Amino acid sequence: MTEREVPPRTQALAVVTAGFGQNLVLTTVTTFILVYLVQYAGISTAGLAVVTAIITVAKVVDAVTDPVMGVVIDLTRTRWGKLRPYLLFSAVPVALLTTLMFSVPDADEPLQLVWFGVVYALWGFAYTVCDVPFWGLIGSAFPDPARRTRVIGDVRAFGAISLGLATLGMPWLARALSGGETTGSGWSLAVLVISVLGMGLFLLAFFFTRERASSLAGGRLTLRQLAGTLARNTPLLLVLLGSVLGFGRYIVQAGGAVFVVVAYGDEGLFTLIGAAIIAGMVISSFTTPLLLRAISGRALVIASSLLGAALYVAMYLVGFASILWIVVFIFLTGLTLGVFLVVQATMIADAVDDAERRTGVRNDGISFATLTFVSKIMSALAVLVFGVFVVLAGYEAGATVTPAMQHTVFLSITLVPAASCLLSAVPFAFVRLPSHPAPERS
């Protein structure tokens, strides 16, 4: 039975709304899980060390499962396509596991840690099952490159908006549902509400999008074909290499809260830095598709990398005496980060199209699995490098902050990202992809 056609504009609206809902859930977990465990589940300092180990191991495993999930997707054949079924069947598990993660039982700490470890591992797997096909669907549902670029820009922009809304709104919602002073049960209810809402919106991508048909004779792929086309997709591999080398773009997000404590003694000031990053990303995510009408993705990502490097160096030279100057520079670097994220996803989609034209094999799953894979690697490297600089600085809770300590931490969020941006530009300079056709009129 053939499914009815869905207009491109409806598909675009569904995908953007789905991405917004998905980011509400992701932001809730990444931003508030440690706060919940320490303040409301009563996890001790020793227990928190175990939690950190659990999260680290789970993230490594999660990164490895992304390509595996991509292969599974590309080998899948159903009447709904190879991508959309995973969106349908992952939404409820993600919502349920997110709620359970914020519903740690009032029991002995070892049992609490086991509960968290099992639930977090299952949540990571379920989220991979929903995230990899979601990005692959964007590449498949929008064959016109101009429209696809606009959709990617909107997904990135509204993802940043949902990040801001969740970051600011979740504590308020938890307090409101606690009936007064915030409680653990209030957090559980708040997360339940956001999980149901977020994954409910996510399901719109299943109901209101359609995948393009495979151009491969018989519509069947083999593991050997997938591996071969991926290994020969030089533009895709160069984009991935440039992305990993650009991990420094994520260091401010990874260590900004620690930096403001070291530099200013007030972690609340991170709200200004976080708002500046989000504002820059939202603006550039909306405008990058317009820029791509006049300039190639390769030229734009190189230019944004060089500009980002210059801005980080300028921030280092100006110094951190004034938080206002830091906020200005963080906003400007947020603009370059938004450009990078849109062009990165766009170039991967273009590389998939190019490989299909050359080989007849379309591998949305494994190709877009590499997007989520490198994003996790970039985040992990950012945390690792920032952590090394914090150790070199000798900073720890309760330590007397010295100018040398401040300078070392400041280096990590300025000159390290600058060098990373410069290195990132090199592989992108060698990417060769066909020019886009004229923008679709609609």
TrEMBL record:
<feature type="transmembrane region" description="Helical">
    <location>
        <begin position="407"/>
        <end position="431"/>
    </location>
</feature>
<feature type="transmembrane region" description="Helical">
    <location>
        <begin position="299"/>
        <end position="317"/>
    </location>
</feature>
<protein>
    <submittedName>
        <fullName>MFS transporter</fullName>
    </submittedName>
</protein>
<dbReference type="Pfam" id="PF13347">
    <property type="entry name" value="MFS_2"/>
</dbReference>
<feature type="transmembrane region" description="Helical">
    <location>
        <begin position="230"/>
        <end position="252"/>
    </location>
</feature>
<keyword id="KW-0472">Membrane</keyword>
<dbReference type="InterPro" id="IPR036259">
    <property type="entry name" value="MFS_trans_sf"/>
</dbReference>
<feature type="transmembrane region" description="Helical">
    <location>
        <begin position="272"/>
        <end position="292"/>
    </location>
</feature>
<keyword id="KW-0769">Symport</keyword>
<keyword id="KW-1133">Transmembrane helix</keyword>
<dbReference type="GO" id="GO:0006814">
    <property type="term" value="P:sodium ion transport"/>
</dbReference>
<feature type="transmembrane region" description="Helical">
    <location>
        <begin position="43"/>
        <end position="65"/>
    </location>
</feature>
<feature type="transmembrane region" description="Helical">
    <location>
        <begin position="111"/>
        <end position="134"/>
    </location>
</feature>
<feature type="transmembrane region" description="Helical">
    <location>
        <begin position="155"/>
        <end position="174"/>
    </location>
</feature>
<dbReference type="GO" id="GO:0005886">
    <property type="term" value="C:plasma membrane"/>
</dbReference>
<feature type="transmembrane region" description="Helical">
    <location>
        <begin position="323"/>
        <end position="347"/>
    </location>
</feature>
<keyword id="KW-0812">Transmembrane</keyword>
<feature type="transmembrane region" description="Helical">
    <location>
        <begin position="12"/>
        <end position="37"/>
    </location>
</feature>
<dbReference type="GO" id="GO:0008643">
    <property type="term" value="P:carbohydrate transport"/>
</dbReference>
<dbReference type="InterPro" id="IPR001927">
    <property type="entry name" value="Na/Gal_symport"/>
</dbReference>
<keyword id="KW-0813">Transport</keyword>
<dbReference type="GO" id="GO:0015293">
    <property type="term" value="F:symporter activity"/>
</dbReference>
<feature type="transmembrane region" description="Helical">
    <location>
        <begin position="368"/>
        <end position="395"/>
    </location>
</feature>
<feature type="transmembrane region" description="Helical">
    <location>
        <begin position="186"/>
        <end position="209"/>
    </location>
</feature>
<dbReference type="InterPro" id="IPR039672">
    <property type="entry name" value="MFS_2"/>
</dbReference>
<feature type="transmembrane region" description="Helical">
    <location>
        <begin position="86"/>
        <end position="105"/>
    </location>
</feature>
